[in-house]
Amino acid sequence: MSKDPQWLFPLEALHHSPSSIEPLDKTLYDLARGVEFLFRLGTSLKLPSPALFTAATWFHRFYMRYSLQDFHRQDVAAACVFLATKTEECGRKLRDVAKVYHSKLTSVDLIDIPSECKEVDQYQTAILVTEEYLLQAICFDFTVESPHAELVDLFVAIPDDRTVQDYAWTFAHDSYRTPLCILFPPRIIAAACFVLAQYIAEGPNSLPLDARISFSAPSASLPTPPSHKAASPDASRLAVEFFALSENDVQNVADALNLLLEFYSVQDLSMHPHLQDIAIVRPMIAPISYCSYNIKVQPPKTSTPRDRIYKPFKPLTSDTGMSVRTPHLSSNSS
């Protein structure tokens, strides 16, 4: 479980975030683009995966305090990456981060950026200024848990099933392009990703998602806590058993799956090859039937009824070819 509930919000809070001047589907699209840019920036800096996951979590937390209109997603992404290099003990020089930032925005190779470059100076300033607001937004709380850490523990129970592991890891990575990390605890997200991975790996005749996450009260004879007992013979319920999910937890897993599948439903399959496997499994139910890219996995029927929050946008693309920007400060900054 998340140790600090202040960082978990109800889904309804997304409709009233500081960026709510824009339609929610547009906000979610911009946030996904911001995380995509953050991952590209961090990968170019050769940061370890935990640092990227920490930075992405801060990114989502930041925009529950400040708006996209006041702080550009790329500045915030760069500030999150720079801060993560310090807290995750994988330090990078500010100028190196700014140079990679400049390279990503302008599609200029790093080796072609001169040692004295005024644009890089501007990016350094933008990162430092934004970092001050980031620290305030996250309340100097540097502790972040990820679903990947939960998955590592779960993988011990299936050491030989690399296909399920690879799918689950990919889905957990994709989850940061959604607000899942500020809606549910890491183990709920991990369970959702693992259940979906099993479902996809088993192919067209796979057991439905609902059957995989159905709740059954634990036997009184089971040891307490049961989270690390031997796996149930019913491998389809491995995640539910391993994480000792309560009835409320199972409901949250269903809701997390629904949101993740809704996000996938508006992505371009040609841009995300791993989604091809999701598209062929099972016809989709009505609530996702109008999506433009034909994702066909049926979400859990037990998920909480709600309006869609994602609508088809142009394919999620990288942020490149942008003009040089000076720091974009909020209206109450000095």
Largest sheet: none
Number of domains: 2
Run of helices and strands: HHHHHHHHHHHH
The CATH topology of the largest domain is what?
A: Cyclin A, domain 1
* Span of the ends, CA to CA: 39 Å
Strand content: under 5%
Per DSSP E runs of 2 or more residues, the count of β-strands stands at: 0
Which CATH class of the largest domain applies here? Mainly Alpha
- Overall geometry: globular
- Mean pLDDT level: 83
Figure out the total of helices.
Answer: 12
Please give the CATH architecture of the largest domain: Orthogonal Bundle
- Over all CA atoms, what is the radius of gyration? 21 Å
Q: List low-confidence stretches.
A: 217-232, 281-294, 315-334
Q: Which oligomerization state do the chains in this entry correspond to?
A: single chain
How would you describe this structure to a colleague?
Residues 36-136, 149-259 form the Cyclin-like domain. One of its GO terms (biological process) is regulation of transcription by RNA polymerase II. GO terms for molecular function: cyclin-dependent protein serine/threonine kinase regulator activity. Belongs to the cyclin family. This protein has 334 residues and is an all-alpha fold. The protein has 2 domains: 9-137, Cyclin-like (Cyclin A, domain 1); 147-288, Cyclin A, domain 1. 46% of the residues lie in helices and 0% in strands. The chain has helices at 24-44, 49-62, 73-87, 94-106, 118-137, 147-155, 162-175, 186-201, 209-212, 238-242, 247-265, 275-279. Helix 4 packs across helix 5 (118-137). It is globular, with a radius of gyration of 21 Å. The two termini are 39 Å apart.
